[in-house]
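Sorry, explain these tokens?

***
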Amino acid sequence: MIKLRALPPYTQFRPWTVVLLLSLIYLSAILAANDADPLAFVTLGECFSACAGADGTDCAEGTEGYDGQFAYYIARDPAASPDCLDAPAYRLQRILLPALGRVLSLGHPSLIPWAFVLINLIALVSSTALLEDLLVQARVSRWYALSYGLFPGVFMAVRLSTNEALAYGLVIGALWLAVRERLRAAAVLLALAALAKETALLCAAAVVLHLLIQRRWRSAIPLALISAAPFFAWQIALIVWLGTPGVGSGGALATPFEIIPYAGIWRIATEGGLLVFLVLGVLLALPAAALPSMWGLWRTIRDWQTGHCDLPACLLLFNAAIMPFVPFSTYREFLGLLRFMPGLVLAVVWYAAVHRQRRALLYSTLWIALIAFVVAG
């Protein structure tokens, strides 16, 4: 008779189980606070629910809702959704979550919020598990995966029905496949990620750059085409349909990408006053976003100069390089900034693991603390 041995404790309780448990607790609390109404997960606002073509610039305070509502309107009625969106082409370019939500809910509006929660929760939990595997391969503790799994930029996406958990879940899946040389499958996941959120293209560019550095032209070119072609084809479709592409810096009240590095932070002082700058800029945006991106640029430039630019370094390079030019409108809304940052968080954690940057790994856990600030808000 074969005796089954008990599994080691770390196989029974792992980072992905922590993420799953805390997500379920938080989602249950949201339902309880909203009389079990699943529409709480899409945060509808009166300004857009009338579907009268509002662009958000004249919304009364407290009637704006939040971005998950736009995915809901698209999934509910794709053809009529432009009148419900603040920036129709910009919102519709992130088509994957609404499309999956519509399919999974069979088109029933009452089921769409549940479908969004399920999709994002599966994406968050499974990507945390895959990141664990990448960290174990790098011979560091799998528990650093919580720096990503509990980072509010992706954790809150499950509650708010935004695109980050799905997009970067697909990115992590693609990276997991790429390190195993399954490049065509990785390219497909990267293509889907770009249709979930356009910032995932930075991660696709990192994989392509890594292949080019290795002079693997026959792998780099197909991966670039497969990962980017669906996104640009969809942009053409949006131009034909709506008269404009979706690529831009944001929806209602968005400002352009900055030219001067980190001007988005310094503009908080001129637009919001000294106290707002000290709290939002110095205490939050500077340590959470600016300093990690500066560290990432410094490390990857050194790697480039010494000829050791591996895939984690390429990933960090692209995701750190975009942060100095993030628009002021993103920096002034802290949750919006955190939703822009999952690629940077992922890149810092993976790079620090592979390159034995223990201090950076330890500091990465401080991102988890931000979840208390966001949940309280």
User: Anything to note?
Assistant: The chain has 21 helices and no strands. The chain has one domain: 15-45+66-244+256-376. The longest helix spans residues 274-306.
